[in-house]
Amino acid sequence: IRFILLQNRQGKTRLAKYYIPLEESEKHKVEYEVHRLVVNRDPKFTNFVEFRTHKVIYRRYAGLFFSLCVDMTDNELAYLESIHLFVEILDHFFSNVCELDLVFNFHKVYLILDEFILAGELQETSKRAIIERMGELEKLE
């Protein structure tokens, strides 16, 4: 995974995690381009779209777009499922997650993401294991 973006319909980035080094200006350009790519696509098309020399896999939940940029040779369906798993974990952790949860508890969202994806690779795919780990971290606070 090269980066993960959570953006609303207006293009505001609510979470951005880059696993490749990019300049700040390039990050803003990438976020703008990815948003333009996914927000204007017809819902009857696939959730995979070519982006530069890579592939963006995205999924829309309510008003948020969850986008992953991966290599062209990676398995799209595996990443589509991982987006869904990430949303399920957020939903469980925040009891019916919404955009405001992501904004006001961004540090917890990044913590969940770090339990799930490490250095651009899927680290843990067990929903139960991630939720248990987050429970342990909550007790420490």
Automatic annotation (TrEMBL):
Keyword check for Cell membrane: yes
Superkingdom: Eukaryota
Xref: SUPFAM superfamilies: SNARE-like
Keywords from the UniProt entry: Cell membrane, Coated pit, Endocytosis, Membrane, Protein transport, Transport
Domain AP complex mu/sigma subunit: 1-140
GO cellular component entries: AP-2 adaptor complex
Subcellular location field: Cell membrane; Membrane, Coated pit
GO biological process, one term: clathrin-dependent endocytosis
Pfam families per the UniProt record, alphabetical: Clat_adaptor_s
CDD domains: AP2_sigma
A molecular function GO annotation: clathrin adaptor activity
Family under the similarity heading: Belongs to the adaptor complexes small subunit family.
Protein name per its UniProtKB record: AP complex subunit sigma
Lineage: Eukaryota, Viridiplantae, Streptophyta, Embryophyta, Tracheophyta
